[in-house]
Amino acid sequence: MSRAFSVARLRAFAVSVFAAAGLDDADAETVADVLVHADLRGHGSHGLTRIPIYAERIVAGAVKARPEIRVERPSPGFLHVDGDNGPGPVVTLRALEAAIAAAREQGVVAASIAHSNHNGAGSFYVEKAIEAGCLAFAMTNAPPSMAVFGGREAVIGTNPITFGAPTASEAPLLLDMATSVVARGKIVEGAKRGETIPPGWALDRDGRPTTDAVAAEKGVVLPFGGAKGSALAIMVELLTGVLAGGRFAKSMGNLYSDYELTQDVGHFLLVVDLSRTHLGPDFAERAGALVAELTGSAPAEGFERIRMPGEVEAERARDVAARGIALPDNVVADLDAVARKVGVASLGDAP
C-alpha cells in the first residue's frame, strides 16, 4: 500500500528533518530539493526514502553538518573542490555554482570534487546547468557494489553519468543513467519489500545469477552492456575518485554501514556556457532541429512514437507534481521513525 503526499508537504518535512539533524536552513532546503526532484521524476530509489540514512549519518557525525567547502582554481578551466565531508547535495551544488560562474568567464570549465558524500540524482545538477544556458556532464563514483566485466566481486560502484543540453524543444535533452544494468538503489528497495528482480540484474554472493532482491543486495549488480558498461564505470572512477584525490573503488566507505569511515565520494562536472561558443543562441535551435529529425523518424513495431532522453521523466514530473508523490507504507514508517529520532513532527496521514 502507498499514500500520496503533496510536494510542498514532503519538502517541508524533509527540510525540518535535516535542519533538526544539524544543517543550516539553506543546506537543508538543498538536500530536500534533490530528494524531491528524484521522486518527481519517478526515481524513488534516490528520493525521499534516503532521508533516514542521510539524517542518521549527519547525526552520527559520519557526514559533517556544517562543512567548510573550499574551491580552488589551479588553472583557468579547472576547479578543484574540497567538500570537507559535507552532504553530497550541498557540496555538489556549491561546486556547480562555482563552475557555472567560471564558465561565464572561460567558456568551458571542469570541476573535480573530493571528500563528498552521496549526492542523489545527477539530473538535479545538470537541469540547473541547463537552466543557466549551459551544456553539462555530471559524474559520481560510489562504494563498490558492481563487478567489472568478467568478474564476480564487488570492486567498483554503479558510477552514474548524467548529460544534458538545452534545446528549442519543449524539454531539454537530459540523460541520467547508472553504468550498471540498474541503479543499486532499486535492488535495495526491492529487498526492503521482499520483491523479486528481473533476470540479468545481479549475481548473489557466490557469483550465481539471481532474481531474489535480498540475495542480490548481498551480492553484486552487473554492468550494463557487459564490457561497455564496465569500461564506462572505470572511466567515471578515473574522473571522480582518482582525479579528485579521494578514495576510489574498494577503499570507499559504505553509505549504509561504515559510520566511522567517511564515504569520501568524488564527483566530476564539465560545464560549457553555450553563450561563449561560436553558436551562442543558435545551439538550442540546432539541438531542437536534431530532436525534431530524430523523433520524426519511423517508429518500430510496438512503439507509438519516439521519445528523447529525459522526455518521459519531464512528463512524469509534471503529473506527479499535480497529484502528489506516492510513498509506500514502509517508507512512510521509516520517515516517521527518523522524525521521532530528531524531534520533529511526523509526516502523518494528511496529504
Description:
The chain has 351 residues and is α+β, with helices and mostly antiparallel strands. The chain folds into three domains: 1-60 and 311-351, Malate/L-lactate/L-sulpholactate dehydrogenase, four-helix barrel (Hypothetical Oxidoreductase Yiak, Chain: A, domain 1), CATH 1.10.1530.10; 68-145 and 154-179 and 226-309, 2-Layer Sandwich (Ribosomal Protein S8, Chain: A, domain 1), CATH 3.30.1370.60; 181-222, Wheat Germ Agglutinin (Isolectin 2), domain 1, CATH 3.30.60.50. Helix content is 41%, strand content 17%. The chain has helices at 7-21, 25-40, 51-60, 88-106, 122-131, 184-193, 213-218, 227-244, 282-295, 311-323, 329-342, and strands at residues 2-5, 70-75, 78-82, 108-116, 134-140, 161-165, 173-177, 202-203, 209-210, 220-221, 265-273, 325-328. It has a seven-stranded mixed sheet with strand order 2-3-4-11-5-6-7, sandwiched between helices. Helix 1 (7-21) packs parallel to helix 3 (51-60) and helix 3 (51-60) runs parallel beside helix 11. The protein starts with a strand and ends in a 9-residue tail after the last helix.
